[in-house]
Structures
1.
Amino acid sequence: MDNAKTTVDVKKETAALLEKLGVARAAWSDGDMPSYSPVSGEEIAKLISITPDKATAVIDAAHEAFKEWRVVPAPRRGELVRLLGEELRAHKTDLGRLVSIEAGKITSEGLGEVQEMIDICDFAVGLSRQLYGLTIATERPGHRMMETWHPLGVVGIISAFNFPVAVWSWNAALALVCGNSVVWKPSEKTPLTALACQAILERAIARFGGAPDNLSQVLIGDRAIGEVLVDHPKVPLVSATGSTRMGKDVGPRLAKRFARAILELGGNNAGIVCPSADLDMALRAIAFGAMGTAGQRCTTLRRLFVHESVYDQLVPRLKKAYQSVSVGNPLETTALVGPLIDKAAFDGMEKAIAAARKEGGVVTGGERITEAGKESAYYVKPALVEMPEQAGPVLEETFAPILYVMKYSDFSAALKDHNAVGAGLSSSIFTLDMQESELFLSAEGSDCGIANVNIGTSGAEIGGAFGGEKETGGGRESGSDAWRAYMRRATNTINYSKALPLAQGVSFDIA
Ligand code: NAD
């Protein structure tokens, strides 16, 4: 491992950070639910997991909070989110470091995740004065028709380990300015950062003054607690981020009780490198997209189609980058690739690489890097696998740094393969040919929720609506008009005439 010497006492530093961030010791020191750091593999806390009955009571209390919060004027609600943004700015370094400890992200990515939280707060504050409805022309004289957007209720948030804090903020900042209360079930792999976010929000709430009790709460627990949130009748919207497997369970359960779902599920993202591509630019974008966050982003680049005319120029350079990339402890080194989250992730990676070999794949990298005394931490060299065709494991998301590279000769065949997987999250094309890029962005092009030109698949900004199609779940959160999912729309028609004309010329004259 690069600069592998580990002198940081991860457990001790976690305790110090939690104290600085204002998390009460009792919440994480003597409970029944262990929490581990992927950096060292050691247990760093024991949290108290909530019982299903208590979780139900928390949701009921959030419903009461909603009834008060919905009548607070939206710009005033925005003030709370502005204060949250201020608190996040003040605690960016500590929270970013805790993200690195709990999720294994390198320092700049841990800090980047907190920056994303700050950005969405700024966005939501502006939004709190822009929850616009339309005024619509009516066919009836002396009438006015308009739309009003009202708060919805308790918004349930279920999040994945790999964006342990940003996903909460994308949802919570919008939900709060839209007049909703929030109940969050974070990943059981990253509960400490959730407690830290809650403590930060509570400081903002104290400064705000007058917010209802229980406006935003956290449920520490596993999937069974997530199910309580999904099934509770007083939760009209659940925004669930995680695997497609999770979405296949959560989606139908929500549909059964006619609740709304924002599903942000797995991705199997691809890029196409065309003959005219700027290869230097493509190389950097591919390296970050495929190896960054140790391949544990929903938007990680997993499949690459390279035109035969540039394959021999690009792929050897890529392989060199794979061989030389620094893998190491994100707390002590400037390594670009940190650890996998746990053993299950490593097992999944090994299994996928073995399956790819069976399909004729030729593998560069993929080896585990172990350090004495740190046998429970899973550091790996990212793997680049040259495949004869798109088959076997290439069709599935393996949540690890594996990039499958395939050669193509015909653009339309590459585009067809690009779309021939279950997921539909992110995509990109590297080309200077306007016909290719426009076709890629057109109705016949990429079928993903995110389609980029000359940038990679990952690293989205909060200003755009984020999400994907097909088995990625179809949800949108964060920027653009994603806020609408967090409100209910009422169409109002007001008659200021002295007559009662019916629409479509219908007559119904009673004696
Ligand atoms: P996961 O599906 O194992 O768990 C995600 C969350 O769902 C956890 O909080 C878990 O407790 C909860 N959960 C699981 N089953 C549930 C159920 N039946 N009912 C209620 N809650 C349930 O995912 P993970 O391993 O933490 O994260 C990795 C996955 O998340 C990858 O597939 C990745 O692509 C995806 N992801 C998607 C996005 C996106 O925006 N599309 C963002 C981040 C991660």
2.
Amino acid sequence: MKKRIFSGAQPTGELHIGNYLGALKNWVALQDDYEAFYCIVNLHAITLPQDPATLRQKTLDLARVYLAAGVDPSRSTIFIQSDVAAHAELTWVLSCIARMGELERMTQFKDKSSKGSSERAGVGLFTYPVLMAADILLYQADLVPVGQDQKQHLELSRDLAVRFNRDFGETFKVPDPYIPKAGASIKSLQDPTKKMSKSDENPKASIFLTDDADTIAKKIKSAVTDSGTDIKFDESRPAINNLLTIYQLVTGKSAEECEANFEGKMYGQFKGELAEATIEFMRPFQERIKQFDDETVKEILRTGADSARSIANATLRDVYQKTGIS
Ligand code: TYM
């Protein structure tokens, strides 16, 4: 039997090359060896205000992104979180064993609840990581491929699985994170000390998956650089580190090959080659995304929800049985 993986992304904002290199690229690679479940987490999306019509459209658009990136619906299950009610139901049970203290320590909650003022933050934003744990544990996932920013949430999922198993008997598999060595945290092009983020107000900070060739080239050209002229990986120079990491991932070259390629060259030439390589990398994705019409996507999501539901419901039944509420 193949091992299982589970991952997801929120249908909010525009996906950027950080999402692609930190997550989607690995989802596609892993589907050969694992039974994969890739979810569009629309229940997570409403932890911050969303326009309903836009959310509905973005949910379909995100499914199209998964498909265009190469997630293959004949091998992997693609589905919408709200189509499987067990996600919300297990969240409640897990909320009853999660502790206020451990949720208060979540750095994403602190960031998103306007820097420490939790008074006006939504309760959903606070319990967000519990819903994420429910997503993963329902499918008995062995592995969860994510970027670095989700590591803390994954640790909570593991803690909740261990606690539930201890209190009610062996029920959940304890999932391992899969965080890529290169690309786990692609940084903003304008401030390489911050991660590239969907919610960044400066559009020049991110390369979006929908950006055309000209826009990609301009954004790379205007990316900030650090002092020093060597085109080399260097922990103390976050800007060049970030740009070289992008170059490495879009070309598939090793770190040594990347450095050798630019030995003795200037930033201008490096940025030109980086832009070209990024544009080439994005081209097949951008051509494929036009191929999936709404009806095809909806059909894939319906089939995906059916197979996800049967697995999720079996886990939920077991949980209800063990907790004495069925
Ligand atoms: P989301 O929608 O913010 O991001 C989707 C994936 O992209 C990764 N990512 C990055 N990777 C590298 N560099 C970056 N700058 C960067 N920005 C984002 C994220 O780590 C993520 O893997 N809570 C999750 C969605 C979720 C989920 C789950 C994931 C809900 N349930 C269960 C895994 C398993 C989120 O908001 O991802």
